[in-house]
Amino acid sequence: MTSVTALLLCDVQLGLGGPRVDVAVTDGRVSAIGPGLPREGELIDGRGGTVLPGLVDVHVHMTQWASSRRRIPLAHAKSAAEVVGTIVRESAAKPGELVMGHGFRDGAWPDVPHKDLLERALPGQPVALFSNDLHTLWLSPAALRLIGREHPTGVLLENDCMAATAELPAATDEWVLEATDAAAARGVTEIADYEYSDTVTDWLRRLALRQLGVRVSAVISRPLLDTAIERGHRTGELIPGADGMLKVGPYKLFVDGSLNTRTAYCHDPYPGQNTHGLLELPFDELVPLMDKASRHGISPAVHAIGDRANTIALDAFAKVGCAGRIEHAQLVHPDDLPRFAQLGVIAGVQPAHQPDDRDVADQHWTGRTANAFPYGALLAAGATLEIGSDAPVSPLDPWDGIASAVSRTDDGRPAWHPEQSIALDIALAAASRGRRSIQVGDVADLTVTGIDPGTLAPHELREIPIVLTMVGGRLTHVG
């Protein structure tokens, strides 16, 4: 990456409630911080904003997020019938063109999705509708034919959903690049891309088109472990030829499904159902995969949402003896809380999911919600939290997650289990890979907000203005 060799960010507040300073950047790093620094090099007016470490979204499905920005939104729908009505009303597709929608949550619906509902409303039209958690894909008969599949209901779950998603038309590279610019506009300087494709190849191709708005950690999907090993990839290492913008991410494995599909794997059965959820990767299969990856310098990132899935994932980390990540950790048994710190396992969490899922959690995790989205308890047990969005499950906007972590609500209702809320400064650090302040010598990945976040009510954080975003001394957004 070509860095500005002499840049001065003028007139900013240093962190929450901090002093007024200038920040000098040389060769992509912070070289001086203080009031009244010499006015040398390129001068960047901070407009009196608050300078913070650059925000990092540690869990994104970037291609799907770029696509969802152009899909019909369905989060408001309270039934399958309402979804169908929305699609009929909002679709402007020509006959035969694929209609795509995103964001439905069917966990508490009074009816059930089915391909016949779509066929009756839009005969012969290919329609693909993605659930908010990306674990359910609802297809019309024509959409099933488009990808050469047959299915009795058209409602595909878990592995079937993800395989079919990969076969549908995907976002263009230009859509993805535009999405990185939109992320930079919210103060994001880095993402971790959890797509199921060859993410390294995808991002090298995009880099050949133009500069990225964010750095990218390219996560390795389960089928590509041997490919990553053959390439000599190791988690955290920079990819040659990417100008410092692309590095190798962790190795993604799934233990269970999700809450809304009732496939999160739990110790207790779901109320009124003879099921504990779906165990996608048993302990005896999980351990050798994690062991193989870790022996080659590739760190595991294990998807675990239900409490039993988290127990299995932690047992596997203990067996293998490696550090890594558990992604989501939405329901955690109290006995497992201290094990995160003991085993060196980071909890990659998505606080914006908690307000979205509170009602379905009350319904399907009855009596256990004190252990759900347990951020306060994890912190008290010494765990390290890192905040992501899981976009498009929630928007690629760290301020949404920060606000939810602090307030435990996103509407007019009281906080849900407020004992699990966390302080703003801790949430900001969790959204910045642990960086709490800017220091001389840091890589100049910086965010400047127009208002000191510490002066805002939690709900106001979602709309905080961004003055500028900087990656390695290069401006990626100016508001």
UniProtKB/TrEMBL annotation:
InterPro entries: Amidohydro_3, Metal-dep_hydrolase_composite, Metal_Hydrolase
Record-annotated membrane-spanning stretches: none
One term of GO molecular function: hydrolase activity, acting on carbon-nitrogen (but not peptide) bonds
Domain (Amidohydrolase) ranges: 42-476
Pfam families per the UniProt record, alphabetical: Amidohydro_3
SUPFAM superfamilies to which the protein is assigned, alphabetical: Composite domain of metallo-dependent hydrolases, Metallo-dependent hydrolases
Designated name of the protein: Amidohydrolase 3 domain-containing protein
